[in-house]
Amino acid sequence: MSFADCINEAGNKNLLSKDKQQSLTDDFADLSKNYENKGLSKEEADRKAGIDLFNQMKLDAAQKIKEKKASIKIQQEFEYSLKRYTEMNNGIPDPATVMRSFVMDVTIKQGFKRIRSVEEEIRIIEGLLDAHMNKILKEFSHNIIGVNRNKATLQTMGREIFQEGSTGNKNAQELATAWKQTAELARRMFNDAGGKIPKLDSWYLPQSHNELLIRDVPSEEWIRFLIDEDILDVEGMFNFKTGKTFTQEELQIALGEVHNNIATFGRSKKQPIKKSNKLSNRRIDHRFLKFRNYDAWEKYMNKYGGNTNVYDIMLSHLKGMARDIATMRRLSPDPERMMRWMEETAKDYVTKNLKIKGNELKKLRNQIDKAADDIDIGMHIINGQHNKTRNPKFTQTMAGLRDLTTAAYLGSATFLAFGDFNLSRISSQYIGMSATKTMSKNLKMFASGLSKDSSLIKTAMTSGLTAEYMTTIMSSAARVSAGETGSPQWTKRAADIVLKTSGLSWLTQAGRWGAGTEMMGFLSRVSDQSWDELATKNSKFHEFLSSFNITRNDWDSLRSIKKYNPDDIDVPGAEYLRPIDILDSNIPEEQAMEIYSKFQAAINNFVDFAVPVAKVRGQLFLGKTRPGTLSGEILRSMLQFKQFPLTFHFTHIMRIVNMANTGDKIKAGADLLISTTLMGALAYELKQITKGKKPTNFEDMDEKEAMAYGVDKMLHGGGLGFIGDILTQLKYGAAFQPGASLGVLGDVANLTAGNVLRYIADEDPNVTGQLMNFVKKNTPGASTWYGRLALERRFFDVIQEMIDRDYYKKRKRLHKRAIDENTEFWWSPGDKLPSESPF
To answer: 287 near 202, Cβ under 8 Å?
Structure first.
């Protein structure tokens, strides 16, 4: 009996579904035809096709078992978490928190055990991959103007990746080896998490595709470029359906479907490579196209990849892999199905809880529905689906406008970041670490940015702390706004230049690295204590570690590994206990990875409180809106600079709310309120100086003015940006605007249509004066703290004096406002030079 007969008989006996029977029949026919094209007889071709298909079925069966085991493990953890959170919550179920905790960072009640989320897991995996890539990150990270360093070596490395030893450059060879090892590590971790990526010796680099460019050319032209220009290594390409190399006919069909899939932004119903939407199959697509050599790869990137370079594509690939690995580790290889199962299981759990009835049961079920919506949106934010659009040009325009407003308005945001030292102090005290040492480490890390050979930077980059500064353009914008993925490269670079030259980017990264390395130093200093001794001598830190499900055995395993000394010198306090080093110990790989993940999650959590950046929770306010739609763009504009207050709320404020003891809440709340108000006042006074004004004169303030000043700084310093913005607009009689970018569009409309209407109404609109105000306000880089005043006085004021007939009236209003603010100008508008010192 032939294999085809076996398939038909199994179908007739209902051992196979009709769809499965048809799929196997088609696969068998494709394999047999492939062998016949190579000259085999029909009988021999059928025999070999049967063997190949049978072996593939065994592999598929093994893959299903692996995926099933991964799913069962997560389901068991979820069911256990439902019960555990009920017990910790005095018998009241809290399924909504459990559901959210599997997807996004959630600030839990004091004394609760955390559930590691997809969002947290991504950071852990990214940090691990960044540590393996640290040489490449240091060599090629973007400079201050957003261009890769050492571009010549970058190309040499690319050639070494495709053909080892081809350039004779040892440095490039080492960098190429680092990439191959990191890419292979990511592949193995993907497969360990439940994925299915074959090891291919002919795979060297991933590729990127500019969907807009590919959409604008017919598939025949795109395919002709790949074939006629000798771009592809056809012999090395793998037909994942037949398990063999392509015939010419198969290749033409497959490439046509790939073009269709790219041109429709992944919405094509035809999926030539993968057979399902499971995450475990997704990365097979990324290994479909094989390029003949580096020159062919670069030629394709320049024509259809948007001129993306090797470095950026490497990082994009690894970030995508980290995201998928983390998703499978926390939500199984089929995350959408797992989330629906969690929703149904949570509802079933509360329904069967005999203590919950009536309105309380209805309330819990509503909370579950809301949590289900949140995790669905959260995963779309995480996997990028939330940024997909059917109107890419409009989306790109609006995203680019948000970049430009970032470049125009955030030049002095560095002063607000000084508050990180205070938040580091508060975060350290909360978990029992030395606040002084953490703030000192942050300052030392910031100062070490002047030295390429800094041992502190070396420690941070090799320890599993994510290197946002080196892996992402506009990395520091994450502290104030949700990430932009659809904007043009040039607008991203414009914003990146401002953020870097203002010091905000490095201050953010240095603060996060400083906090992370200090915690590893603290782990080293207390590693001589047993688990019980730690609980006695530092109950706060013991409780903090325990909240991440760290056990006595985990603690003993970590403190048994060799401490890291970056300088190999015997200096007290210069050693670090790094969780990443446990992966090189004799502990079994799976166990070591779990211990590493627990400790790294604890470190990352501390870092996120010390230097807050945007989180998924803050972006949930976007709802189900999409970019490129009116509602989506309005919301993105409104939330553009609101991620810090949102993150501040979901971290520091919610941690105080969730404290168990009322006295602790009052004490921590007072500390947070007073200290952030003082930091807000410091930032305000520094910004006043950069605007040409003297620090506020408190001696002349009456009681009401002093109270108003304190409330204003409390709102801004404490991260309550929404309220602060509204009050500021009410104070000065400004109309509420839905965000910076739409505010710019409103100004443009006022300059054009608004002035036309004024002209028709026989009003003189003073167009030149309005235009000058618009340019001064919206010029990228004009707000940088170190240059704004000189630029304004020596350039903008000079031009405005010539073209704005209301210039002197405006100057008087500025002086009056300064008096209202209990200050005066040390460099007055219109003056070529300052008249006195700011102090």
So the answer is: no
